[in-house]
Every structure is written in C-alpha cells, then in structure tokens.
C-alpha cells in the first residue's frame, strides 16, 4: 500500500542514508538482531504496532520539521535584526526542538529520512527568505499558511493513531499533540502580527499551502 520506499527494510539495505547526520545514527552489527526483530513487526507484529505507519509518520514529520527549521532560518536571515526578530527566533527555537525530537525518534525506531531532505533544505530557506523580503507581513503570512497545514496534518495523524489503538502509540501521540499545539500557537502569532496585511495574502497563502501539501505527499513516499 505504501510502496517500496516506505518499507523499514531500507533501514538495513540503505545503510548509507543513515549517515546523513552523524555517526550516532549508524547501525552497528550487534544491533542488527534488534533491527531484524523490528522488521518482523512490520505491518503489525506481536506488539500491535503498525511499523509501516510508524515509519511513515516519523519520516514525514521529520521532513516537515526540517523544512520548518530552514524556513525560519530564511525569515531570520532577512528580518532577524528587525522588530519581529525575537518573535521569529522564538518560533525558530521551537522548530529546532521539534526537529531534534524527530531525529531522536528516527534513530530509536530505525526510520530512514526522506531522500528529499536536500530539496527541503533549499526550498524551506528560499520560501522563508522570499516571503520575508515582502516585509514582516509577508513572513507572517507564510507562517500562517504553513502552520495551518501542519496543524491539520498533525491532527490527521493523531486521529489515525487514535483509531488504530492509542495505547500502542502513547509516546508518539504525546509528541504529536504537543507539537500540534505549538504549531497552532505559531499560526496565531502570525495572525497577531498582521499576516493578513501582506500583499496578495490570499494568493500567497494558497500557493504556500499547495507547496506544503505536495511536500507532505512526497515525503511520505520517497
Ligand atoms: Fe514544528
Ligand atoms: Fe511551527
């Protein structure tokens, strides 16, 4: 259903992908046995966890938080020294914490990252910086657009896990709910700082949201 790219088997076969960040993500030979056990639990094992679903959620959320980190980096590069600099910095710091959490979850659950990270690196920064060049309102319009999509995305994942069996995903559900709340707060911060005054707000918002949805679709699969 999810295609060959979503299989956690790639954790072993695609070992080089693990090295994208640091040595701490390498799978040493002595760990292979536990990875093999994880493989056997794919698509629902004795512990009741749907490994394919878990991998897909962690992978796409890591990609999203990675893109958000780059987006706020772009905004900060343009507006960091202005009056909204501290506001952007606060949201950026929270995105960094989100990203770190998903990096840790990826290592612990042996989930490979999306192959599209280099694209989200560049695209996130360019969208952040580009909208910030429209002024404070442009940056905040971007924040509203992105955070609205991400909040909905987290809500959809929470709903899916609740329908499966919340007891099997206690930790992940806590993370998703906390981050959903943070993203909604970012969304509200954007509105409070004149997002709707941005030039071409409606078109800008729709365009960014289409891009976000495409990024989510691709990151779940590649
Ligand atoms: Fe986030
Ligand atoms: Fe956010």
TrEMBL record:
It comes from the Eukaryota. InterPro entries: Ferritin-like_SF, Ubq_synth_Coq7. It is found in: Mitochondrion inner membrane. CDD domains: DMQH. Its cofactor is Fe cation. The keyword Oxidoreductase applies. Fe cation 2 binds at residues 95, 147, 183, 186. GO terms for cellular component: extrinsic component of mitochondrial inner membrane; nucleus. Belongs to the COQ7 family. Component of a multi-subunit COQ enzyme complex, composed of at least COQ3, COQ4, COQ5, COQ6, COQ7 and COQ9. Interacts with ADCK4 and COQ6. Interacts with COQ9. This is 5-demethoxyubiquinone hydroxylase, mitochondrial. It comes from Eptatretus burgeri (Inshore hagfish). The lineage of its organism: Eukaryota, Metazoa, Chordata, Craniata, Vertebrata. The gene is COQ7.
């Amino acid at each position: 259903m999810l295609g060959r790219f979503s299989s956690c088997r790639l954790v072993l076969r695609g070992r080089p992908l693990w090295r994208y960040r640091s040595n701490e993500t390498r799978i040493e030979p002595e760990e292979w046995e536990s990875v093999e056990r994880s493989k056997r639990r794919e698509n629902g094992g004795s512990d009741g966890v749907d490994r394919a679903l878990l991998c897909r959620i962690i992978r796409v959320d890591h990609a999203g938080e990675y893109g958000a980190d780059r987006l706020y980096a772009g905004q900060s590069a343009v507006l960091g020294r202005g009056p909204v600099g501290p506001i952007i910095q606060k949201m950026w710091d929270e995105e960094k914490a989100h990203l770190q959490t998903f990096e840790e979850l990826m290592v612990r659950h042996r989930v490979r990252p999306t192959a599209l990270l280099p694209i989200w690196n560049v695209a996130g920064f360019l969208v952040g910086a580009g909208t910030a060049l429209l002024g404070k309102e442009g940056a905040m319009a971007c924040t509203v657009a992105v955070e609205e999509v991400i909040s909905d995305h987290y809500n959809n994942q929470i709903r899916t896990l609740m329908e499966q069996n919340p007891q099997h995903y206690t930790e992940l559900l806590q993370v998703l709910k906390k981050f959903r709340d943070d993203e909604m707060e970012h969304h509200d911060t954007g509105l409070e700082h004149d997002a709707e005054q941005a030039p071409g707000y409606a078109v800008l918002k729709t365009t960014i949201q289409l891009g976000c949805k495409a990024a989510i679709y691709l990151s779940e699969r590649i």
